[in-house]
Amino acid sequence: MALILLEGLDRTGKSTVAQIFKDQGYEVLHMSAPSKDFFQPGYVGPSYVDEMVELLASAATRDIVLDRSHYGELIWPTVFNRKPLLSEDDIEVLREIEDAVGVQRILMTDNNLELHWQRCVENNEPLSKSQFLKARALYERMADKYGFEKKTLKDFIDVPTKQNQADGAVSEALNKAGTSMSNADKNIQKESHDIPELQKLEKANVINDVLSKRLIKAKGPIYDELENDIRCFLREKLGKIFGESTNNDFSKDEIQLLKLFCERLKEKENKR
To answer: What residue ranges define each of the domains in the chain, with the CATH number in brackets?
Structure first.
């Protein structure tokens, strides 16, 4: 299945592009700012990172487009001067789940800064000019660091018909991640005996690509131990792909294990 992350400032066309993907059969989830509950003193419910682990893992069994995502925690806390709910280490762990289920990361942008700002003003977006410029710079930095493809609305809608959108610009973008299929393709897939094997091979290639490099950039005994734990988890997942199991979903135990990785990272941060 597929996971598409749409990030970017207001008025860059994220929701329009999300609708294009929805027309192809994707489920669109519009993410807003994190719940205020997370910031309440004494809050004891699931953490924001726990919620994101479950959401991202669910993309193993369904095609999802996130209109905004957890990467916003690298942007808006700095812009609005609040405490972030995710650290960069949390992001790295979540990225492993993204890569395991198959992800395409897209940053929607507008090359004309002044026209973009004017649209924000006309639509009463809650940003000052300085906040707008800061967010724009942070998004550019995020895209470069975390491998987001920079797209403009024209990349998606500058085609004659909706079907051509699916077969042209949008399809080309999705094919780069190896996750695109039209609704017709999905029907063919259900009827074919060969496609499931191709899916398994594609997923195995993604996992092998992830395992080909160090997963966590930070160094130290605890990070090295966590690096080994995640690699063991991914190798086990790889073994299941080529074994008897045909279930491509993350089990409850696997999701719990991923949550445990996140908790261990947080414990490490608290000891610094």
So the answer is: 3-191 (3.40.50.300)
